[in-house]
Amino acid sequence: EQENVIDAEERLTQMMKTKMDLESQISDMRERLEEEEGTAASLSATKRKLEGEMSDLKRDLEGLETTLAKTEKEKQ
Known about the structure:
Masticatory myosin heavy chain 16; mainly alpha
């Protein structure tokens, strides 16, 4: 019976260590998730900004192409 008690205590100790390790891993993963979510939000904002700039540049290019076409037509 004493052996069973010692066995149970050892298993309990091992389970407690495992639980602490797993809780630490969960904490680390939560921190990493928060960092990754922050990075994703930042990248998304940068993407939206660049898409807006690209749209402006396309509009400018279309305007220049129209002006060039009119100028070439007037030369003829």
